Amino acid sequence: MAESSAARRRADAAAPPADARGRHPEAESRALDGVIHHRMRLGIVSALAAADCLTFNELKALLKTTDGNLSVHARKLEDAEYVTCTKRFEGRRPRTEYRLTARGRRELERYLDHMEALIRATRGTLQR
Length: 128
Known about the structure:
The chain is of the alpha+beta class and 128 residues long. Helices cover 61% and strands 14% of the residues. The chain is built from seven helices and three strands; from the N terminus they run H-H-H-H-E-H-H-E-E-H.
């Protein structure tokens, strides 16, 4: 059902003021990290948080995914500076290794805290 314009105005009036770029800080603090929230990317950062470093093939086997899928999601994490990628050769064979950066570890911690808060809030509504 469409929201009435009066209801939209009331919601807008109740919202915290936007900053100079039109963003609402409170709403942004409640938003999940879209980079980590994707199932495959969450799997990558979680695996890397538990290990010092993992190779491409180790991640691929652990996450049961394809080369292309892992490459795309690992690149997004690299672009966000959540993981680093090191490529080298062992003999004639390429070896790609991934590590979680300090920023990636902080963002994973924030994401997990956020999810825990959502779970606590939702559990509270189930008691009604």
